[in-house]
Automatic annotation (TrEMBL), chains A, C:
<keyword id="KW-0275">Fatty acid biosynthesis</keyword>
<dbReference type="InterPro" id="IPR041010">
    <property type="entry name" value="Znf-ACC"/>
</dbReference>
<comment type="pathway">
    <text>Lipid metabolism; malonyl-CoA biosynthesis; malonyl-CoA from acetyl-CoA: step 1/1.</text>
</comment>
<dbReference type="GO" id="GO:0016740">
    <property type="term" value="F:transferase activity"/>
</dbReference>
<keyword id="KW-0863">Zinc-finger</keyword>
<keyword id="KW-0547">Nucleotide-binding</keyword>
<feature type="domain" description="CoA carboxyltransferase N-terminal">
    <location>
        <begin position="23"/>
        <end position="288"/>
    </location>
</feature>
<feature type="binding site">
    <location>
        <position position="46"/>
    </location>
    <ligand>
        <name>Zn(2+)</name>
    </ligand>
</feature>
<dbReference type="InterPro" id="IPR029045">
    <property type="entry name" value="ClpP/crotonase-like_dom_sf"/>
</dbReference>
UniProtKB/TrEMBL annotation, chains B, D:
<keyword id="KW-0275">Fatty acid biosynthesis</keyword>
<keyword id="KW-0276">Fatty acid metabolism</keyword>
<keyword id="KW-0175">Coiled coil</keyword>
<keyword id="KW-0808">Transferase</keyword>
<dbReference type="Pfam" id="PF03255">
    <property type="entry name" value="ACCA"/>
</dbReference>
<keyword id="KW-0547">Nucleotide-binding</keyword>
<comment type="pathway">
    <text>Lipid metabolism; malonyl-CoA biosynthesis; malonyl-CoA from acetyl-CoA: step 1/1.</text>
</comment>
<keyword id="KW-0444">Lipid biosynthesis</keyword>
<comment type="subunit">
    <text>Acetyl-CoA carboxylase is a heterohexamer composed of biotin carboxyl carrier protein (AccB), biotin carboxylase (AccC) and two subunits each of ACCase subunit alpha (AccA) and ACCase subunit beta (AccD).</text>
</comment>
Length: 288, 326, 288, 326
């Protein structure tokens, strides 16, 4: 729904057309040029202005999990082209480009790992892959991660980053909203925590399905989160949008989020929360 | 065709009226005006094309775009047209008990061809006035929250749910976002997946994205022959991919959003045939076909226990999607 | 909470101080003087302006139920004075006055009856008795009616008319909100319909307990319905209240009611609804 | 006592500030201003009384009115004062996922003296600024709806609920009524009665009417020695019955709203002793007593199964009330 203004926006880091050498990144918020090593040491939060730069799925795992604890679950499921979708190029061509760019079969990475010693199942969407859009594979991998979590008695932590549904799979893509939802039922039945982390941006069909039915929903500061994209809304109402509209802080105020948590504090926050919600995890957890 | 220019004049008049009211009273009627202005613009383009003899875009498109045109035909029966023909004692229950009463998503108990059901329906409006009132079938979160409340009642009283889907999509507005449009749709999908009673859904004309799926998690999903159901409207898809909404016919082709497409993809169980030329040419016959199909599926599901219904619905949607495993 | 402006308001009908002969009533809305027989034939809805006059509990049963079908359930439970409550007079003195005025031990009448042939358990609050305030007896009678309905596999129809809780029973009165709520659980467990009819006025603790957790909630036209009384709100916000604030139509618009139903159509409405919600009642019901 | 006139000056200054802000920005701050103005008026009366040597109304009342005074003492510990002393890892979860985040009713998981719980608490604010922000502990419907959401989580994760009650009552405002204040309280009472986990409630200072009972449907209900719990505040009762709010001391006597009264009436299981002179004189000791009592009841309930907890809670409240049967 809200893809249009993401496709044209360049990613902050190491993007084609970026005239800075690969060692440096220009913060899209304060425009300062920052040494990547410093950004990396700061969880890719701008040390000058606190802006949370977008992460790809692997970076997300690095930031979220205890070092070396990640074991990948996904990766054997590949997208196909059930609709023979052709627009200005074919869907397979688009997919190949996204795969080459990200080195990943689809816009999702799942696996298990630990957060301050608490074992979790984890899924991270990859906005770098076709705007994190959800097609059959993203839906399937999320469903499998949820089922694997339930089977292994693990909580699920899911980091959303998506412009919405994958147009090129039309109704099949739409159905992923229901598929992921029913796959999450196993966690509910076993009383296992499901925590959703909304990152910039989370819109469209992802906001309207698995990302917002979690037990606890937190967001990164300043993330754009909504169902309809700001451009669509502006076209409909022909008024300018209020300051901060659809940003994390706005949603917190409107009762939609449990909290807005700085990325650098997310591991501590999630570990604490998981121990609180699943008291048995208190024993498993480390000292922190 | 002169019917269309009458409608155009009507609408333009109504828009001017509303604009005056807004100026005079200081009321903000933009929410009501915006979709109306769009409608006017669309009709005006069609009218211009007709007068200049230019080929209407409908003609430029293939069979799929023609069907989209039929699905949006001004005389197309609305959900309430079917309900009037197929049910008795429909008792509309209003409100979400939280914030408001959505005018685009209605519901309540009714007797569907002799079968007691809980009815949910999306109503677009039948004339300018009701179209505006019903926001052209686009719900705010209140609509989905009302639907969930009625699903609770359906479960309590063991009434099967019949959901008649007809929406261009959920309403894209500031207030809708403020009150959690995405959250409401997600929760409605979840709530519907948990129904202990049978649920039969039918896409009547337009099945626009999450706003349609919110009440589309049925044990059976049916679709009228000339309806479409898609993750995005052809116009929005065209403006994203081609940067040109006029490429909607091409987008419609690419999206494979018609009833036969969806049957082939396994998204729906059955295509309900319409009278030749479309449902608007014989509303009674169209209603008869819808009524018969829904009743048949209700009867088939009626012998299943709650666990079977739950499991069947979960499996149905869990299996959705096409991918390769390597 | 919201009693203060009811206690001083005179009832429309056959009230002390009314200078009309007992055969006539002055409509409090349009001020027309109307023959009681005509009012009675019109369910005590003003034939001139449609105003719904307040009913006492017996009148309510007459209006709601099939003639001759009412069998009383309540009446053996009497209020006591557990707090030795004394203000300008004692609580027992107040009670005696209310009992003498209404010929009823308390502000509630319950029983079973039929609505267009559909058997129901029914409870009606009596605003004429101490402003319909809810003390231990009202709570007990409602709880018993709910339990009797569940035991007899009958739906419950409850007509609220109350200024709120009974101050003279303090915390005991407050607890009736929870008591009535838990007593209604039996109906829920057996899938039996509970329908609430809100009449003028319904405020305070009644609005915040059993009256608003019904499966279906309807209201009479123009009824005042709210938690806090208008006077309390006005004192707090020091602004005038919007037109129609806390009236049935306002609440319908704000999503709180299933419908606003004219008193003269309530029997047909309720009979239809009960048959729809409890299909087995379709067989029991008459032809209508 | 000079502390009180300092507070008065502070508050008056704050009110003027807010009034100026309101005028300058055109914001409507009446909702925040109204309770503040009341506070000012109350303090001013007390101050006047003190300066003129007139006997303060507190003195005119009996023991019950004195306790009401203690319950409202400006230095009285708030819910968060107790939480800080008694819990670890309190993780506040915000929002009702419907409309907003109520600032007066807070909650989230925490560890209560070593026991994992779901905490619900009503917070009045500790200084002028936070008092205004938290609306003096008076919730809008969002507060009760957040509480219900957290009860869902408590049930899912098997966490016992600890509810710390401290509110003059639910907020009486236009918006609160528009969004169903009565509905929210009723549903919260019902939701709490359905908890499958143990629930222990404690009235800390003020237990004002339905706004308190909304999170007061516990298996055990405790009360601090100098707290009150009543269907109506003494002031409101006085202004209804005596047509004079100054008769509040008499109303307090009549209402029998103190902890010992409630114990005798069977409304609470236990009165938690406070340090001599009131909880404000030794917050640590007060917290210790509260913590110990709540923990003890949690431990006692921990061995019960869900059905026993449900039945026990239902029986507890079903039995409430005093009447004669003839
Ligand atoms: Zn920066
Ligand atoms: Zn009249």
């Amino acid at each position: 729904m809200a893809l249009e203004h993401f496709f044209r926006r360049s990613r902050p880091k190491q993007q084609a057309g970026n005239d800075l050498p690969d060692l440096w990144t220009k913060c899209p918020a304060c425009k300062e040029t920052i040494y990547n090593k410093d950004l990396d040491a700061n969880s890719w939060v701008c040390p000058k202005c606190g802006h949370h730069l977008r992460l790809d799925a692997q970076q997300r795992m690095d930031v979220l999990l205890d070092p070396g604890s990640f074991e990948q679950l996904s990766g054997r499921v590949f997208p196909s082209d059930p609709l023979d979708f052709v627009d200005t190029e074919t869907y397979p061509e688009r997919l190949e480009r996204a795969q080459a760019k990200t080195g990943r079969p689809e816009a999702i990475l799942t696996g298990r790992g630990q957060i301050e010693g608490v074992p979790v199942m984890v899924a991270a969407m990859d906005f770098a892959f076709s705007g994190g859009s959800m097609g059959s594979v993203v839906g399937e991998e999320i469903a499998r991660a949820a089922e694997a979590a339930a089977a292994a008695d693990l909580p699920l932590v899911l980091v959303a980053a998506s412009g919405g549904a994958r147009m090129q799979e039309s109704a099949l893509s739409l159905m992923q909203m229901a598929k992921t939802t029913v796959a999450l039922e196993g966690l509910h039945a076993k009383g296992l925590p499901y925590i959703s982390v909304l990152s910039d941006p989370t819109t469209g069909g992802v906001t309207a399905s698995f990302a917002t039915i979690a037990d606890v929903i937190i967001a990164e500061p300043g993330a754009l989160i909504g169902f309809a994209g700001p451009r669509v809304i502006q076209q409909t109402i022909r008024q300018s949008l209020p300051e901060g509209f659809q940003r994390s802080e706005f949603l917190l105020e409107h009762g939609m989020l449990d909290d807005v948590v700085d990325r650098r504090e997310q591991r501590a926050y999630l570990a604490r929360l998981l121990r609180l919600l699943k008291p048995s995890a208190r024993q498993q957890g480390g000292e922190q | 065709m002169s019917g269309m220019s009458d409608l155009l004049r009507d609408l333009e008049h109504k828009v001017r009226d509303l604009e005056q009211t807004a100026r005079k009273t200081g009321q903000n009627l933009e929410t009501a005006l915006a979709p109306l202005r769009e409608e006017v613009a669309k009709l005006r383009r069609a009218e211009d094309d007709r007068q200049t003899g230019r080929q209407a875009p409908e003609k430029a498109g293939g069979e799929r775009w023609e069907r989209v045109g039929l699905a949006r035909h001004p005389e197309r029966p609305t959900a309430l047209d079917y309900v009037e023909r197929l049910t008795e004692d429909f008792t509309q229950l209003h409100g979400d008990r939280l914030y408001g009463d959505d005018p685009a998503l209605l519901g309540g108990p009714a007797v569907w061809q002799g079968i007691p059901v809980m009815l949910l329906l999306q109503q677009k409006g039948r004339d300018t006035k009701t179209k505006i009132k019903r926001r052209f079938g686009m719900s705010n979160p209140e609509g989905y929250r009302k639907a969930m409340r009625l699903m609770d009642l359906a479960d309590k009283f063991g009434l099967p749910v019949v959901a008649l889907i007809d929406t261009p999509g959920a309403y894209p507005g500031i207030e809708a976002e403020e009150r959690g449009q995405g959250w409401a749709i997600a929760e409605s999908i979840q709530r519907m997946s948990r129904l202990k009673v049978p649920a039969v859904c039918a896409v009547l004309s337009e099945g626009g994205s999450g706003g349609a799926l919110a009440i589309g998690v049925g044990n059976r999903v049916l679709i009228m022959e000339n309806a479409w159901y898609s993750v995005i409207s052809p116009e929005a898809c065209a403006s994203i991919i081609w940067k040109d909404a006029a490429q909607a016919p091409a987008a419609a082709e690419a999206l494979k959003l018609t009833a036969p497409d969806l049957l082939e993809l396994g998204i729906v169980e059955e295509v309900i045939p319409e009278p030749a030329g479309g449902a608007h040419l014989d509303k009674d016959a169209a209603a008869q076909a819808l009524g018969e199909a829904v009743s048949r599926h209700l009867r088939e599901l009626s012998s299943l226990r709650a666990e079977e219904l739950l499991a069947g619905r979960a499996e149905r949607f869990r299996a959705m999607g096409v991918f390769e495993e390597r």
